[in-house]
Amino acid sequence: MNTVGEIYRFIDEIAPFHTAMDFDNVGLLVGDEKQAVDRALVALDITPAVVEEASACGAQLIVSHHPVIFTPLRRLTAGSPPFLLAQKGISAICAHTNLDLAAGGVNTCLGEALGLKQLSLLTEYQGSGLAETMAGELDQTLSPRAFAAYVKQRLGCEGLFYVEGRLPVQRVGLCSGAGGGLMPGPEAGIQAFVTGEAKHHELLQAEAAGITLVAAGHYDTEAVAVSPLAARLAQEFPSVAFQAAKTMRRPARYL
Known about the structure:
With 255 residues, the protein is α/β, with parallel strands linked by helices. Helix content is 31%, strand content 25%.
């Protein structure tokens, strides 16, 4: 039977934990690396509902994108996800910005979900050679409005907002999650940029640059990586039943 430590080491091979951004908290955050695993959930977030799902199906491990412990804990109270994990004996491995930057990671999965071809590095993270943003080509040129509708359909968003650029869209830049501030200028050769979140001043910058900026939601631009990661882990560890958490959900609703 495989162990938490073996699964941790494989994730470290495909998305090295040391490549995570300085502010991040990644790795084995709850549990025991010697714990045996025959069932595991993969999720975007470790919420109480996801922990209960893992417990109900007999999973010994949850692999998540967002860290279940992000800032230093000042208290550990009943009902909180870290408390529930410890109470139920479930380990948690969290791969956050290291998985964003990795080849085949979250940004790659977003590009594939959007149907982009010739995906490649657009901008790198601090000279590391790792893709902070990526870019790819659409099969057909779309108007800015049609492109925004295309993103909504491909990602299954309940809603999104966008800045309408000046040019038809063929080459698309992207960054999953909160990537509005990472949008390059028009000199990068993109006509559109897709991310999860964008601040007001970033929308104004996109408008001034004439780039179609689509903010499709943090959840929707990152949840696309959960099933591919579960499949990749299942292939590496055939004796472990990996599955995407069914209780994952958007924390926000749209009117």
